[in-house]
Amino acid sequence: MTFEMGINVLPECIRVMLIAMVPFGELRVAIPIGISLYNMDSSQAFVLSVIGNMLPVVPLLLFLEPVSNWLRRYRVFDRFFDWLFARTRRYDHRMEKYGALGLVPFVAIPLPVTGAWTACAAAFVFGIHFRYAFPAILAGVIIAGVIVTLSCMGVFVLID
């Protein structure tokens, strides 16, 4: 059984949630696919995509630090995390100023590499606690979902 055949066995609602869980597309890809490819109602595609996009957030926020600490025992990963921290700390002044609230617009702007996965990495690097990071990321995901859904609805209205 090929991967394509395997995913076609899944119900469309599960497919949309799985697409939303992928770090590179997240709901920016899942909503248009749900609406256009699977002919879902825009509200259904929105809700499923937000749920799918948020599913990896909890484990990422909870386990990114312990996993990175364990991986740092190996030189290649230690060098990678040193590079990541040095690169990310350039934005330290912004995060000090806005804290977890800075994650909201970062996630809300539906551009590549500004989604929930990257926000989890930023929360880890800047030491933002779960109780502050999770609601900020959720708010950003909801705003991005609204923007993408409205954009899709406008594009599809223009096409019709």
Q: Could you characterize the architecture of this molecule?
A:
The chain has 160 residues and is mainly alpha-helical. It has one domain (3-159). Helices cover 78% and strands 0% of the residues. It has helices at residues 3-9, 12-21, 26-37, 42-54, 57-71, 75-88, 92-98, 103-108, 116-125, 130-159. The radius of gyration is 17 Å and the shape is globular. It starts with a helix and ends with a helix. The mean pLDDT is 88.
Tally of discrete structural domains = 1
Q: Could you tell me the mean pLDDT? A: 88
| Number of helical elements | 10
The largest sheet is:
none
Classify the helix fraction into a percent range.
over 70%
Q: Give the termini distance in whole angstroms.
A: 38 Å
Beta-strand percentage range: under 5%
- Apparent shape: globular
Q: Ranges with pLDDT <50 over ≥5 residues? A: none
| DSSP strand tally | 0
Order of helices and strands: HHHHHHHHHH
What's a quick, concise take on this entry?
Helices cover 78% and strands 0% of the residues.
Features:
160 residues; 10 helices
Secondary structure layout plus pairing:
Layout: H1 3-9, H2 12-21, H3 26-37, H4 42-54, H5 57-71, H6 75-88, H7 92-98, H8 103-108, H9 116-125, H10 130-159
